[in-house]
Write a structure and sequence with these properties.
single chain, 313 residues, alpha/beta, Rossmann fold, 12 strands, 23% strand
Length: 313
């Protein structure tokens, strides 16, 4: 695996392991080689694997930053932003920034699994030109087989032991499709519905009142108001100038669908995942939305787009 260290640009690898020894065979040399080269090394993994890696590294463990995966893998948008901050703050000179990033799959429903799979795919775009080397472990003893199969599609390379090989199943992000998309609400069917035009103040009042009545906390209601306002603004600017909002509670989430009446769907499912460049104006709103929501789905229709915003209760 150390042979890739001299390459430039992103290295994104999936580590499929079925034993502690396999995990250590890949991660210990990865960390040690990075430390010897002066690279920053971040390990985001389970508490058990962190203990294993510390023991395997010995005194070198003190030079690795360890973070609990359950805390780090909060929401796809915020997690990606956290990785960007970490890499940007340390990407200088000829060195690399090395990351062991073990996604959290337990406790996720099908919708969340689908969006975290898209997150793994969009890493290939978000860090394409960065000096990041990201290894994502998947414990095949506990991670469902369908998620392991998705790892083969979202990582250009796979790690076996300390060796890396090209993944024959890899798909570029633009080609990735993964299931569990919820059928968006239809205006007039269930929940509270508002058709809107240019009056964004009415949109904000509607979201604030409805989210509060559905049991969303005051802080999260504020987040919902800001997020929906951003998406509704995009509808006015780029989506035909009018649309509708359907807001309802589904299980443990408040879901808000914002749909436009535009002539064509939004082209990219990963809109808002790529961080805005300095001075960029277009696309900033959806980046903000992904920081505020627990899940964001962008669903093209025959005419227009539905953006579904999820807030955990």
């Amino acid at each position: 695996m150390t042979g890739a260290a001299d390459a430039r640009g992103l290295i994104h690898q999936g580590l499929l392991y079925g034993a502690d020894e396999q995990f250590l065979a890949a991660t210990v040399p990865f960390c040690r080689d990075g430390l010897e080269r002066g690279d920053a090394v971040l390990a985001v993994t389970t508490a058990t694997n962190a203990d294993l890696l510390r023991d395997g590294l010995g005194a070198d463990a003190g030079h690795v930053r360890f973070v609990d995966a359950d805390t780090w893998y909060d929401t796809p948008g915020r997690t990606l932003a956290a990785y960007h901050r970490y890499v940007d703050e340390r990407a200088d000179g000829d060195g690399r920034v090395r990351v062991i990033g073990e996604p959290v799959w337990h406790g996720r429903d099908d919708l969340a699994v689908a969006e975290w799979t898209r997150y793994e795919s969009v890493i290939n775009l978000a860090f394409a030109d960065s000096p990041a080397w990201i290894v994502c472990p998947y414990d095949t003893r506990v991670v469902p087989e369908r998620i392991v199969d998705d790892a083969r599609r979202t990582h250009p390379d796979l790690v076996v032991g300390s060796l890396a090989e090209t993944s024959p199943a890899y798909l570029a992000p633009a080609l990735l499709t993964t299931g569990a998309r919820r059928a968006p609400a239809v205006a007039g069917e269930g929940g509270a519905v508002l058709r809107f035009g240019s009056d964004l103040a009415a949109v904000r009042r509607f979201v604030a009142d409805t989210a509060d009545s559905l049991g969303l906390s005051p802080t999260r209601t504020e987040h919902a108001v800001v997020a929906v306002n951003e998406v509704a603004t995009n509808v006015l600017d780029h989506g035909g100038g009018s649309g509708w909002i359907a807001l309802r509670r589904t299980g443990g989430r408040i879901v808000c669908d914002v749909a436009d009446d535009g002539p064509a769907p939004l082209a990219d499912w990963f809109a808002g995942y790529l961080p805005p460049a300095p001075g960029q104006r277009l696309g900033v709103g959806l980046w903000v939305v992904r920081q505020l929501c627990d899940l964001v789905e962008i669903q093209p229709r025959d005419t227009g787009t539905t953006v579904s915003l999820h807030f955990d209760v």
